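2024-03-11 09:14:02 DEBUG pipeline.ingest accepted 1 chain
2024-03-11 09:14:02 DEBUG pipeline.ingest length=411
2024-03-11 09:14:03 DEBUG pipeline.predict start
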Amino acid sequence: MNDLPDGWEWTTLGDIAKVVGGVTKDSKKQADPSLSEVPYLRVANVQRGYLDLQEVTTIRVPEATLQKLRLLPGDILFNEGGDRDKLGRGWVWEGQVPDCIHQNHVFRARIRPDEYDPKFISMYGNSLGRKWFEDHGKQTVNLASISLSTLKGLPVPQIPLYEQQKIVAAIEEQFSRLDAGVAALRRAAQTIKRMRDALFQLTIPQKSENWELVTIDDSIRVVDYRGRTPPFSAVGIPHLRSFNVKDGRVNWDGCAWVTEETYDKYMSRGLPSSDDLLFTTEAPMGEVAPAPDKKFCMAQRMMLLKPDLATWLPEYLMYHFRSPWFQARLRLNATGTTVQGISSRNFRPLRLYAPPLAIQEMLASQIRENLSVIQDLERELQVASARSRQLRIAILASAFSGKLVLEEITA
C-alpha cells in the first residue's frame, strides 16, 4: 500500500461498508408471471466513473430478492470482472431507475453517508485501488475476476468526511476542465473525418463530368477468401484478419501465423500482387488497403481485389471504395442485423465511377497530398488524447496522496 499523508489511516471496504453480490438469473423463474419484473444492472451498465443506462434489461425475482437487492442512492457498484480492465470498475448509484437491482457479476457496497462520501470511495477504487484488484484477482486464460472477499479487503484511506468531500470536489473541478478539452478533441476528430470524407468524395463525378459506370464484376477480379479459417502456428508466415486492415493501411499488430504448408493450402485461390487491394467484408465491413509487398496469408472476412489496370489506377480505386457514396451503397447491399457483412454475390454487381486514367492519376495525387496533412492532424489528436488520459490518472493519484487539496485543508 502507498504511504498516506499525516492524519490519514488505512481501513478496508469491508470494515466501512456492507458489501453484497447480486442476483443470478434463473431461467425457470423468468417464465413465472407471479414474480416481480424489475430492472437490473449488468457489467455493461457499470463503467469506470459513470453508469451507462441506455439499455437496462429486466429480470423476474421474488419480492424478498427485490427487497434485499434494491439499489439506494449512494450505493457504490463494483464489477466482478470479465477481462482485466473490468476488475473493480464502477461508480455510484444515484437512484436513476426505480426498483433497480444488480446481477451477480456486479457487487454493491453500502456505506454510512455521515461517515463516507461514496464518490470518494468509488474514485479511489477506479484509480489507486486498481492495483489491489489486479494483484488479488483471479486470472484464467480468457477471464479475470475478483471475489467478494477480495473486494471487502480493498484498502481505502480513512479520513474525515469534510476532507473526502473537498477531495471529490477538487477532482470533479479538474475533471470538468479536462472533459471540456476532451470534448474539443472529439469535435476536432469529427471535423477531420468530414475533411477526409470530402477528399474521397472527389472520386464521385459532378454533373458536368461524364464518367463511365462499370460494375465491380466487369472491371475487377474478386478472389473471395471469406470463411476460410486456417490452423494457426506460433511462428511462420503472417496471417491477416479483417481487423488488421484499417484506414487504408495494413496493421500487423495482433496478426496470427501459419506454416508454409498451411499457406500453400489456403492461398490456392490466388496470390496477391503489388497492384491488388484487400477488402474487408465483415467486422469491420468496407475497409480497404493496398496488398502488402511481402508474403502473407489471408482469410476470414476478406476478399482480394485484382483491378483491370486498363480501367483502374489501384490507388484511385482504393479512395473510391472509401468514399461516402460507395460506403452507403455497400451498406444497402449488406446483410445481417447485429454485424453487417457483404457477400461476394452482393458485392460483384455494385457499380463504380471510372474516369479516364489521366483524371484518376490527377485526383489520386490531390487526395494523397491532402490526406497526408489530415493524417498529421490525426497523429497530433492521438497524442493529445493520450495526454488527457495520463492527466486524468495523475489527477487521481495526486488527490489520493493528499496533494491536490492538502494545503487548502491544512491552511
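2024-03-11 09:14:41 DEBUG pipeline.report Confidence is low (pLDDT under 50) at residues 407-411.
2024-03-11 09:14:41 DEBUG pipeline.predict end
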